Amino acid sequence: MWLIYKKELLELVRDRKTVFFMIALPVLIFPIIFGGMIYVTNEVQSEAQTKTLRFAISGEQYGRDLAAQLTDVETLELISLSEDISDEENAKKAVKDGLVDFIVQIPSNYGNDVINSGQIVLKIVLNDAQVNRAQSRVRDITDVIEETNQRAAFASLGVNEDIQKALINPILVEKVNVADDREQAGSVIGGFVPYMVFILCLSGAMLPAADIGAGEKERGTLETLLLSPIDRVQIVLAKFLTIATAGATTALITITSFAAWGLGAASMADINILTEFMAAIDWVDFVLIFLMLVPVVATFAAVLLALSIYARSFKEAQGYMNPMMIFVIIPVVIALIPGIELKGVWAWIPLTNVALAIKELIKGTMDYVQLVAIFGSSVILAGALLAFCVYWFNQEKVLFR
Q1: Smallest Cα–Cα separation from 192: which of 355, 325, 82?
Q2: Region 321-349: what's the mean pLDDT?
Q3: Which Gene3D superfamilies did the record assign (predicted)?
Q4: What element of type H or E holds 102?
Q5: At 292, is the secondary structure helix, strand, or coil?
Q6: Contact call for residues 186 and 364 (beta carbons, < 8 A)
Q7: 95 close to 101: Cβ distance less than 8 angstroms
Q8: Are residues 269 and 201 in the same domain?
Q9: Is residue 18 part of a domain?
């Protein structure tokens, strides 16, 4: 068995395309892609904040101070329109036609005397599907005016500062969070890591799996292997271990690469949150997170090997394997549903229990007793799938279909 395993690994390493997908993509291309996405997102947000927007005002005569403050903003340009933009439909049409980016409609009861004017409804007509932060820019100005008017109204009524606070917020809810920084950060990051690990394990194992089974059929080397004095169970186990090794290697290299790039970027950008979060995770939890790859790759390797053995050609095998991506995402999505925890029946559902366990390990709230259920269910599933592979491999009609 180990001789075949060594042979398969050597063939795997000699295949430049496979090595590229296993090493080059995780180390260089994936971090560049995700880093580029983050960079572009930040640039878009920054541009949305600084971009000069054209706007028009309806009811300027009711709020000349507000209009003056809006005009004084460097990134806002006042445009005069011939249409009657006090009508909401005309205002919507002007924005849709691109005449202006947004329109501010000032009501007739606008004024600085809160007691007499009552509540003021200031309307902003804009295309909210565009990233331009128009509403937040207007809100920055109105917040200052609102606070000034409130203080003036309270002063005229003779209300002291403590009573003012009580009137504005009669009931103040103060949150006392028992979760530490690691648990809070882990609740967010912990949902992303299983998704990445599952996809990488599967993608890293798919190419070797298609080549080990269906590829050997096309090359005509499968018959030679079957004529050797080696039990077919050992042949299946060797191929199974090769696929599992490829999937685990890809996932490990990618996670290590992301961690290295992330810590490097955090140190250069002086981001202490990420480094403190990584330092808070115990080495035992790190080891257990990596051990969670064992049930994942075992399940994937067994399924992929069965599909590869059944397929007539390399192309057909890839056609069978590609839809598996959908089935990989489902367990991760289930693990992200609020209220689903690593308890009871969920601890025995394969893949979902691993996703939940990784999340709990990152958060630092893992119940280590549940590891029995996780590895137990995974061993049962992987063993059953592996037994099916052996059965499949012993069927001549399947091997030479």
Answers
A1: 355
A2: 84
A3: abc type-2 transporter like domain
A4: strand 102-105
A5: coil
A6: yes
A7: yes
A8: yes
A9: no
Strands 123-126 and 102-105, sheet pairing: antiparallel
Q: Count CA atoms closer than 13 A to 159's CA, side-chain side.
A: 15
**How far apart are alpha carbons 354 and 377 in whole angstroms?**
10
Strands 102-105 and 76-78, sheet pairing: unpaired
Closest CA to 94 of 131, 136, 57: 57
Q: Are 67 and 139 in the same domain? A: yes
User: 242-284, pLDDT tens digit by residue?
Assistant: 888 888 887 777 777 766 666 665 555 555 555 566 666 677 7
Span between the terminal Cα atoms of the chain, in Å: 25
Q: Are both 339 and 198 inside the same structural domain?
A: yes
State the residue for tokens 């809070």. 184
Round to whole Å and give the CA distance between 93 and 330. Answer: 43
CA-to-CA distance for 237 and 106, rounded, in angstroms?
A: 75
268 and 347 part of one domain: yes
DSSP type of residue 313? S
Q: Between β-strands 53-58 and 102-105, what pairing exists: parallel, antiparallel or unpaired? A: parallel
Residues in the chain, how many?
Answer: 401
Structural domain contains residue 20: no
Q: Are residues 164 and 183 in the same domain?
A: no
Question: Containing domain of residue 388, as a range?
Answer: 179-399
